[in-house]
Amino acid sequence: MKLHILGSNSNGNGYILEGKSQTLLLEAGLPLKDVKEALNFDLTKVVGGIVSHLHGDHSKCASDFIKNGIPLWMNLETAEHIANGKSSSLIFCITAGKQFSIGEFKIIPFSVKHDVPCLGFMINHPESGNILFVTDTHYIPNRFKGLNQILIEANYEASILDNNLYDGKIDNTRYQRVLRSHMSVETCVEALKANDLKGVQNIVLIHLSPQNSDADLFKSKVVEATGKNVHIALKGLVIDFSLNPY
Asked: Which of 84, 105, 86, 85 shows the shortest CA–CA distance to 94?
């Protein structure tokens, strides 16, 4: 299994889990051409995609995916937003706590704490083991066991955000929204420490704010706290997500 990073910020979010015979898309915030380029213009293995919520940086290209025959799974609010009153046989509504499958990928969605209804996902595949994918939440209400790979938001650092407010680089409205809807690196570290990391091979820090983050600092904080292999989600990065037995 390989993880492809197409993009991971407010300009657009998209990731690919490419298996030997089946491929799953995570988010639809970037054009389908980006997916095609990452997969050498071969979409034959793509079995579908999941979308966490309706905000444009995660869903704005969903209609294009659907027009090209790629089925997408999402919560009701996101489905209504994307469908815009039209019906589609390629949009599937999912509910937190109810497992579903897309090909060989077994997925359990769970609710997270954003400013619109948003889902995190536990994704299982024989090639990768258990993958935790969580973005756009100010904390994770769940705990997980048996994790092998983690994609987790680390959007901002508290002191950087505070300084940007004091310096007038962001206004109070944006400041308060970030606090209520995104995860700080401090909260990210606490969330990781609260979970079972024994079998974790990779931790990928996603959705870093261009203005309120420091990639090197974030990576060092998470490495120090977990002792794991930590990556920053940069466009074009490909990470081996194959499950290696211990």
From this structure: 105
Domain ranges of the chain: 2-240
What 8-state DSSP symbol labels residue 188?
H
Distance CA 17, CA 61 (A): 18
Residue-wise pLDDT tens digits, 204-234 = 999 999 999 999 999 999 999 999 999 999 9
Residue 59 carries which side chain, given as an amino acid letter? S
- Of the candidates 76, 142, 70, the one whose C-alpha atom is nearest the C-alpha of residue 112 is 142
Handedness of CA 162, 164, 166, 171 (dihedral sign): negative
Tens-place pLDDT, residues 114-154: 999 999 999 999 999 999 999 999 999 999 999 999 999 99
**Residue 244 has what pLDDT?**
76
Structural tokens at position 33: 């051409």
Place of tokens 């203005």: 211
Distance CA 50, CA 58 (A): 10
Model's pTM, two decimal places? 0.96
User: What is the CATH T-level fold of the domain 2-240, as seen in this structure?
Assistant: Metallo-beta-lactamase; Chain A (3.60.15)
Under 8 Å CB-to-CB from 28, ≥6 apart: which residues? Answer: 14, 49, 51, 58, 59, 60, 61, 62, 65, 72
The closest of 124, 177, 113 to 149, measured between CA atoms, is 124
* CA-to-CA dists, residue 116 to 43, 73, 77, 162, 187, angstroms: 31, 17, 9, 24, 20
* Residue 142 structure tokens: 């769940």
Query: Taking the C-alpha atoms of 71, 72, 78 and 81 in order, what is their torsion angle to the nearest 10 degrees?
Result: -30
Q: Write out the H or E segment, with its range, that includes residue 120.
A: strand 119-125
- DSSP secondary structure code for residue 156 in this structure: B
